[in-house]
Amino acid sequence: MKSVRSFRNMLVGVAMLGLSLGGASSSALASDVQDDGTSAVSSPMEAIKLTADNAVAYGYAVRTDSDGQQWAMDAGTPDGDFTHAVPIAEESGASTRDRVVGNCGSSWVYLSGKEGYRSVYTGYDIQAKFGLPVSHVWSVAVYSSIDFESFDFSGLPSWGAERWFETRFIDTQVIEGLPISTIAGGSVLTTGGLCVSGSPTDTITG
User: Fold this and answer.
1) Which residues belong to the signal peptide in this entry (predicted)?
2) Of 38, 131, 141, 205, which sits with the fewest C-beta atoms within 10 Å of its C-beta?
């Protein structure tokens, strides 16, 4: 759903989106050439220890079963359903949002097309050694100097698929010759823990 705001509120929205994407650094960005020849901006994803605090901080629900075991799952999961849930191990002094050394995957976003036919493409790849994706909290913002548009892709990815991606047509207004930009990312709950995006960005000229 599109959300049109004033320029000032748009900037606030983009800043808040950056915080909701986990606050991971986007300094290590790279440009990857896709199959269609388009350049996509990607950034590494960092593994995060799966604790109850971390799960809640990144937008997941934490529920306890009849045996006292805590589970992390998609926030929209019905009560009593642990089908797509990941058990939370007992905490052992891990601090909130503690990052594990090394990358658990990569995420990307890019804009393409011309006025009336523009689209945004986003997704991620998770390294198999960090587990298989179970759920994700994922957002994309597209903005210019005069307009703002956001998309929420949160939910359940294809079960067991290490790669996930989505494309959406956009109608963000932009003054000819000025930039239109996007920022994407979030976090992925896997069978091995949490994997947080580095919030990749992309910009094209309107």
Assistant:
1) 1-30
2) 205
Reading the block at residue 92, the tokens are 């052992």
- Each residue's pLDDT tens digit, 105-141: 999 999 988 877 899 999 999 998 888 899 999 999 9
Query: How far apart, in whole angstroms, are the C-alpha atoms of residue 49 and residue 27?
Result: 22
3-state helix, strand, coil in the chain (%, to 5): 10, 45, 45
> Can you read off the two tokens belonging to residue 56?
């809640």
Euclidean distance between CA atoms 18 and 29, whole angstroms: 15
The strand pair at 119-126 and 61-64 is best described as unpaired
CB-CB contact of 181 with 174 (8 Å): no
- Evaluate whether 62 touches 82 at the Cβ level (below 8 Å): no
Round to whole Å and give the CA distance between 24 and 43: 10
9 phi/psi in degrees, rounded to 5: -65, -30
pTM of the model: 0.74
Burial of 100 (0-12, 13-18, 19+ CB in 10 A): middle
Q: How do beta strands 70-73 and 193-196 pair?
A: unpaired
